[in-house]
Design brief:
The structure holds 2 protein chains of 2 kinds.
Chain A (H helix, E strand, L loop, with lengths): L10 E6 L4 H13 L7 E4 L7 E5 L11 E5 L5 H20 L1 E5 L5 E3 L6 E5 L5 H4 L3 H12 L4 H8 L3 H13 L3 E5 L12 H11 L6
Parallel strand pairs in A: 1-2, 1-3, 3-4
Antiparallel strand pairs in A: 5-6, 7-8
Chain B lengths: L3 E8 L5 H9 L4 E7 L2 E11 L5 E6 L7 H8 L4 E7 L5 H11 L1 H6 L2 E6 L9 H10 L6 E3 L5 H18 L2
Parallel strand pairs in B: 1-4, 1-5, 5-6, 6-7
Antiparallel strand pairs in B: 2-3, 3-4
Helix pairs in contact in B: 1-6, 3-5
């Protein structure tokens, strides 16, 4: 029996921000070299709209609102770049194709626009293979296991880059261990009353935080 | 007025509950008689005095099932739970199920981390099987390998527990 069909490659646009001319040339060249191996076909452009903004690690400048951002470390590693691009592809595809529960009158699934009401809920603890030894993923999964989070809030509270959070969310969803909730009312909004206690415990035990 | 806050370390006898608490605090534990349905049982704990005078008390629960009343007494009002599982025992998945079932109320209102000790690479059951047992009990919480003699690893368990509590706004 044939397995599930691989997703068809789609043309995607990215823009570099914060790179020197030389480093930018290296990133563009490597992305071009990866064409045919990455899930989508990525083209560097100089103007919006783009699917992705690529910035160097440590970049703290302004980003276009709403754009997916991806941090790239130099010197470049092709396998890192490849996997990062594929994670972004999964996230973009998710944003484009995410479905509401329920169906329209004509029976077709209704698309859900990306927006502040989307929160990700962890359904079970992710397989070890998804987490690996990356402590960032362990922390993100722990937070998502505690309650559903919007991804921007997850990034803010965990202090982990937004692009990493988006990519991790896409992987969790694709593996069936998390689901999106369409719920504009976040019953958990705001900090709990015990944040002072947790800070004191962290301080006494020598743990970083509070986050 | 100062308050007492409790985190419980539970698991089978010999899994390393007292070792974990002792590793974390770097001090010997003290024993306290805890009353469970009229029977006083000596329970080990270590204390941390917080900077506002509150006291964080880390308990190692007695391991055997006959101490279930004591478990319930300790769980009452506790702020979180660390379940330690000894992978070298004959049925570690069943061990985990026992502690999840007995502490389900505490887990539901606070947080829980599962630490699997004495786990050798490539041996079964893997971490995913422990997560599956947790999922069958409706528990979605971190499942990580741990060496209870290593303070950094025990600290990481407590960190993950605090991350859960902070996320829930407990």
């Amino acid at each position: 029996m044939a397995g599930p069909a691989a997703p068809r490659a789609v043309d995607r646009r990215f823009r570099l921000v914060g790179f020197s001319e030389r480093d930018g040339l290296v990133v563009r060249s490597m992305v071009r070299l990866l064409t045919g191996r990455t899930r989508d076909r990525w083209t560097a452009v100089d103007a919006d709209p783009v699917h992705l903004v690529v910035v160097p690690v440590g970049f703290d400048g302004e980003l276009p609102p709403g754009a997916l951002a991806m941090n790239v470390a130099l010197p470049l590693r092709a396998d890192d770049l490849w996997s990062q691009l594929d994670r972004v592809s999964a996230q973009v595809a998710l944003d484009e194709g995410m479905l509401r529960p329920g169906r329209a009158e004509n029976g077709e699934a209704r698309p859900v626009p990306a927006g502040p009401g989307r929160r990700l809920q962890l359904l079970r603890w992710p397989p070890d293979a998804l987490l690996g030894s990356d402590l960032r993923y362990l922390r993100l999964a722990t937070m998502l296991g505690a309650r559903p989070f919007a991804i921007d809030e997850l990034a803010a509270k965990s202090n982990i880059p937004l692009a990493t959070c988006h990519a991790f969310a896409a992987v969790l969803h694709a593996n069936g261990v998390a689901q999106w909730l369409i719920d504009p009312d976040d019953p958990h909004g705001g900090d709990g009353g015990n944040s002072g206690l947790f800070s004191r415990i962290r301080s006494k035990l020598g743990l970083e935080g509070p986050r | 007025m100062s308050h007492e806050h409790r985190i419980l370390f539970t698991g089978t006898m010999g899994v390393g509950k007292s070792t974990a608490v002792s590793s974390l605090l770097g001090t010997p534990l003290v024993s306290e008689a805890v009353d469970g349905q009229g029977v006083a049982v000596a329970v080990d704990h270590g204390d941390v005095v917080l900077d506002n005078g509150d006291r964080l008390r880390l308990y190692g629960t007695p391991g055997q099932r006959r101490f279930e009343p004591t478990w319930r007494a300790l769980a009452d009002g506790a702020m979180g739970l660390v379940v330690l599982v000894d992978h070298a025992r004959p049925a570690p998945l069943a061990d985990l199920a026992i502690y999840l079932e007995n502490f389900l109320d505490l887990i539901a209102r606070s947080g829980c981390v599962i630490g699997v000790g004495r786990m050798r690479t490539g041996t079964e059951p893997g971490l995913d099987a422990f997560a599956e047992v947790a999922a069958r009990h409706g528990v979605v919480c971190p499942v990580v390998p741990v060496d209870v003699r290593d303070r950094a690893q025990v600290l990481s368990l407590v960190d993950l527990l605090l991350v859960q509590l902070e996320s829930r706004g407990a």
